[in-house]
Design goal:
59 residues; globular; mainly alpha
């Protein structure tokens, strides 16, 4: 998970609060991680980000 330092702060913080989502995100190929990171650019609140991360596995 060395790439965590390069994630948008809100996304990284939300991932750290959800171990299952973090493990899932970590297991993805780089291209898929980048696709997910791009989706986070439209998220504007902490609550919305946490919901996005909590539902990441169902994506």
């Amino acid at each position: 998970m060395d790439y965590l330092q390069e994630l948008p702060m809100g996304f990284g913080m939300a991932l750290l609060q959800n171990r299952n989502a973090a493990m899932y995100f970590d297991s993805l190929p780089e291209s898929e991680r980048q696709r997910i990171i791009q989706k986070t650019s439209s998220i504007r609140s902490k609550k919305e980000m946490q919901s996005f991360v909590d539902n990441l596995i169902n994506e």
